[in-house]
Predict the structure.
Amino acid sequence: MTQTFWTTKDFEVFTIDGLDSRMTALQEIIQPKFRALGDHFSHHLSVHGKGEFFPHVAKHARRTVNPPKDSWVAFAPAKRGYKALPHFQIGLWGTHLFIVLAIIYENPDKVGIAERLEKNRKVLTSLPKDFIVSGDHMKPNADLLSEVGTEGLEKVLERLQTVKKAEFLVGRHVSSEQAIKMDEQEFYNIVEDTFNHLLPVYDVVINSFV
């Protein structure tokens, strides 16, 4: 029987009560997988030629009471810190995994990013029909790009320009039920495919496109 990359146990980490217990499970069960993904896909993204990417496994170090509801490995062209930069993420909620390009509230260039994406909207509207968009990385839910339409996309980008805490995430969600059926190669393939579709979006975001 082929071994899957993710298991039910990975997703059940987010049902464990208590900060210390959940953090221990995260560190022992999930983070070794994040580190493996970090090593592999930092190289894949670096080959794109827009800077050397470095992996950042979420530490959740500021938490003192509430256990994390999700976790991730991020990829950014900086050895220290990634939240102020456009970055890629592979991560888990209890219900699904996500593979996204993220511009979160710490980014100082959100207005410029939104303007560039508005001018080059086709880079978003031409993405596969199963791609999602979200305006808040703290919430698990997201909308299908194919369903929000041009008007919905405009609203998300307008909010990115005008609301201080607004964010922009685009990519894929994969349900936990689907994820636990994928072997390692299948999972790596879907991450690679997602990143390959997102790299042209990244080029617009960082103002490095033709």
Summary: Residues 86 and 103 are 5 Å apart (CA to CA).
